[in-house]
Amino acid sequence: MSRCYNFDEYVDRKHSHAEKWNNMVSAGAPKNDHSILSMSIADMEFKCCDEILNALKEPIENGVIGYDCPCQKFFSSFVNWQKEKNNWDIKKEWIVPVPGVVPGIANTILHNTKEGDAVIVNTPVYPPFFNVINLNNRKLVENELIELDDKYVFDFEDFERKIIENDVKVSILCSPHNPVGRVWTKEELTKYGNICIKHNVLMISDEIHGDLILKGYKHIPLASISDEFAKNTVTLSAPSKTFNIAGLAQSVAIISNDELKDRFLNGLVGYGIFHMASFAAVGFVAAYTYGKEWFKECMEYIESNIDFALEFINKELPKVKVKRPEASFLLWLDLRDYGMPHEDLHQYLINEGKLLLNSGITYGENANLFFRMNIACNREMLIDALNRLKTALNKL
Ligand SMILES: Cc1ncc(COP(=O)(O)O)c(C=O)c1O
Counting atoms of ligand 1 from 1, which one is nearest the CA of 251? Predict the structure, then answer.
């Protein structure tokens, strides 16, 4: 298959500011040990496309890096992308720029609940969800996903029961789900939304992984299901994962309910957030306008990495269980068969295996002995990581 973009290229990020390679201490690894291979934080090792890189030169060439605001193209590029990808008709007026999906989640919680109010999440789930609830003095309610042989599913009975028992005010949906890789079906989303609406629970839908859908699956934005859902949802989306530009810190909230939107906007202004970073403004537009071909090839590469990794694991490491993800570039490895304390195994993989994976336990108590592996890297690095995993685990 001929490609225009080279995803085999190695980019040295160890000597950059990359958090994945330079802040390994926070993930439990020793400081400055560059012999450790990091397959952790969810950005990609791929260079982003030239069209974006060229657009980023614009503010520099212009020479003035002043205050920026979203231009017409900012809105139209995103509206067009959602129409083409998800057949979702959104209006320009519903879009609010926000410097990050997690800040958008925090802003929604802070301005729609009061201290002590309960917020529900489906665990295991992306750990910053816990922080925005706990550190803002809201009550965390965990609804554990049910693990089937081939996938995770919602436990709707427990979800509804916990909403009632805790008088839950807000739910945070991760769609597609990080880390378990589910692309929720229309039936699942409809059931989820109906329960929330029945009990007056405001829905936050984190759809940052919504473009990274693997073959055979279809992402459905929660708010696109019905007008009733739309009016009760704050959707958060971003080009960060899709085009590997998380460092631009430019996301959007999509809110069709005017009251909710005003509260969201006022919340941002209350923190003094009412400008855009120049690079974020141009990068966002370039990504959604010119990044389509790069993204298509990138997903083909990711899909082939997933095939490769699953085949390797199933053949060489039969004690490691892994379900095929339906979205994104994250493998959720089940190492329960190794039957040792979670933290000991994590440290063993780092110190003996020289391999850094995300520790599952931070995603919820039901993730003991699970580890998340980011496979968005060139094939050579993936093979290196899989061999390190094999060598370390085989010594146990
Ligand atoms: C589900 C999910 N939400 C949000 C984020 C981060 O979003 P941001 O950096 O825009 O706050 C990530 C990053 O890994 C993620 O996986």
Answer: 10
